[in-house]
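Throughout our pipeline, every protein is held as a single compact record rather than as scattered files. Nothing more is needed to write down the fold, since each code stands for a local backbone conformation. The record that follows is passed on verbatim for readers who wish to inspect the format.
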Amino acid sequence: MSTFSDLAEKVVVVTGASGDIGVAIVKKFLEQQSNVYAFYHSDNSSLLPLKEKYKNKIHIVQCEITRRDHLEETAEKILNEAGKVDILINNAGINRDILFSTMSEEDFDIIIKTNLYGAFYCSQAFLRALRKGDNASIVNISSISGLTSSFGQTNYSAAKAGIQGFSRTLAAELAPKNIRVNVVAPGIIDSRMVKRVPRHIIRQVISAVALKRMGTVNEVANVVAFLASETSSYIVGQTIVVDGGLIMR
């Protein structure tokens, strides 16, 4: 297990915490003895085992990140309770894969709203709390779909590419305020989202991965924790690709 001792007692906010990657990220920070606020949209059942094990170190919070008023109210409550936020992980995201020729405006809009606007809303809502943090860090979760072509995902690719552009400029603006911003771009990861993809497509993609396997959610979480920790203190505005060598060709 990778250990980052400086993360102990840090106040961490993780959006999209109930998904497979989100749970792994939350667990990783809890293992470092961080105090984690885990945001979920509608179903928190995947987080309950962590609550049972880590007790008061995890705070499970229902929050609709596309509702700016609700998000700002939640951010204010956390600031009043914790006094700061040291780390923000913008992980919330959804997909709605469909060929461009039949994609509706709603299909496009809901992905941009959740994946890209969600990161914007959260970063802005927690900015005051991050300014009070100790060597604060924002880690935004993108995807290799934002770096290369991804059939049937013009909406998702646009949102994930947008996160990378958003993060680079945000990093430049916030670095002088001692807030680092970086991005993690996972490839094909063994998760519920990927399991919904037809198996023959999964096999095709894995055949193109240099390591010839899917990644694990823990491998993503390890990189997220690294970027949030002081171990990466001189890394700013970068996108770290976690894809087993899929797009290096």
